Amino acid sequence: MKKIFVNGYGTIGSRLSKFIKDDPEVEVVGVGKYSPDDKVTDAIARGFNIFVPKNKIDGFKDYKITGTIEEAISKSDLVIDASPAGLGYLNKKTLYEPMNVKAIFQGGESVTGEKMVSDLLFNSRVNYDDAFEKRYVMQGSCNVTGLGRILQPLKEKFGSSILRFDATLLRRWADLEDTKIEVKDTVEWTPKPHHGDDVKSYMGKDTPLYIRVFKVPSRQMHVHLMDIRFKNTAPRPSEILDVFRNEYGVAILYNANGTKDVRSFAESLKFSFKDTNMIHIHADLLEAAGDTVKLTYSDDQTGIVVPENHLLMQAMIFKRTRDDAIKHTEELFHVNEKKKLLEQHFCQK
Ligand SMILES: NC(=O)c1ccc[n+]([C@@H]2O[C@H](COP(=O)([O-])OP(=O)(O)OC[C@H]3O[C@@H](n4cnc5c(N)ncnc54)[C@H](OP(=O)(O)O)[C@@H]3O)[C@@H](O)[C@H]2O)c1
Predict the structure, then answer these.
(1) Distance 78 CA to ligand 1 centre (A)
(2) Pick from 96, 153, 114, 113: which is nearest to 105 by CA?
(3) How far is the C-alpha of 208 from the C-alpha of 199, rounded, in Å?
(4) Which of 11, 99, 138 to mutate to test the pocket of ligand 1 (most atoms within 8 A of CB)?
(5) The pLDDT value given to residue 211
(6) Cβ-Cβ contacts under 8 Å for 103 (sequence gap 6 or more)
(7) Which pLDDT does position 84 carry in this prediction?
(8) I need a labelling partner for 6 at 20 to 30 A (CA). Which of 186, 222, 310, 344 fits?
């Protein structure tokens, strides 16, 4: 059985380890913790072995620790790195490469420049098979993953009749669990956002995508406002919705009054971590006027990348086909069932 170590137990790492632990095809060696806090108790209660940096081990004397980060990596076939943005690169250089272990990195890293962690930014809808032979792959961030789920089906359906995509991303300030982060009463802009280059790294450099990014005072979800310009008259809204009806991890919702409405529904149905694990097209905001379609969707920042990591893990260690990988991911995440429940609740009236 293949052995997986989840290095980092924050927002993403705690979700990844919880789901992957239920996968009968792999064994979770344990999780990496760097601070001796309540989350150590949480991870132990969930049945995980805890591994910590050798130079911090004394700080963990009040907890039952299994070993060092190096010991965990030496037992593993693949590490899923869930460290804060930028530290994945350091881990690759100091741990994964010297110890010759495969690794998946998260969206805060980079696939270009001096600190690139891989030459492949993964999006299961676009380049699933490209991960088969790779030792190091970066999973796109939540926004970058959501953008691929919208752009690729549109590109396949309408091809060169699309002139350009202009997207404005409204990013949530902090995650629900980030209670130590104060949500400030301001709208911040992000100069030189990474999202456009990240998307182009897997959709092609010539993708006519133009992005602006703002951070808004909310903890719920991201919202993307996308204008799609066509060479001629734009397709009708119903034609656009038809493109997405059977897309994996894309729900079509009506009558939601905001991102919290969607998150609260997920909470009321006890979806794990209050996540929907997908993007949601808000169909009552969809418009076509002249040559332009105006599309709005929300993106579950904490949930969307977790099943994606599970698909990527299967590509890297089992070289399984995408269809088979989705079937297996479904057994753990039930994305299709969640989509159905969301679409039934937020239906057209
Ligand atoms: N949050 C999101 O919604 C989201 C969505 C998509 C992608 N991402 C990406 O996922 C990555 C992780 O984000 P996050 O939100 O989960 O961060 P987070 O909540 O701050 O958690 C980071 C975790 O990494 C641990 N850590 C600290 N130093 C480390 C090291 N050197 N090596 C490995 N782990 C280390 C921390 O441990 P201690 O707490 O013990 O110090 C903490 O458990 C980032 O690249 C981020 O951009 C985040």
Answers:
(1) 18
(2) 96
(3) 11
(4) 11
(5) 98
(6) 78, 79, 80, 81, 88, 91, 92, 96, 117, 135, 136
(7) 97
(8) 222
Q: What is the spatial distance between Cα 9 and Cα 69, in angstroms, rounded to a whole number?
A: 13
Q: How far apart are CA 314 and CA 311, in angstroms?
A: 5
Q: Are 265 and 342 in contact (CB under 8 A)?
A: yes
Answer yes or no: 347 catalytic.
no
Domains parsed from the chain with CATH numbers: 2-140+305-322 (3.40.50.720), 142-303+334-345 (3.30.360.10)
Which atom of ligand 1 is closest in space to residue 87's alpha carbon? 31
Nearest to 144 by CA among 9, 247, 279: 279
The tokens of 310 are what?
């599970």
- Which of 9, 15, 16, 34 has most ligand 1 atoms within 8 Å of CB, for mutation? 34
Catalytic residue chosen out of the listed positions 121, 142, 154, 234:
142
Write phi, then psi, for 250 (nearest 5 degrees).
-130, 115
Residue 35 CA: nearest ligand 1 atom is 40
Residues with CB under 6 A from ligand 1: 7-13, 32-35, 82-85, 87, 91, 106-108, 141-142, 175, 301-302, 305
Q: What is the DSSP letter of 116?
A: B
Q: How confident is the model at residue 48 (pLDDT cuts 50, 70, 90)?
A: very high
pTM: 0.97
Test site for ligand 1: of 83, 259, 276, most ligand atoms within 8 A of the Cβ: 83
Nearest residue (by CA) to ligand 1, atom 21, is 10
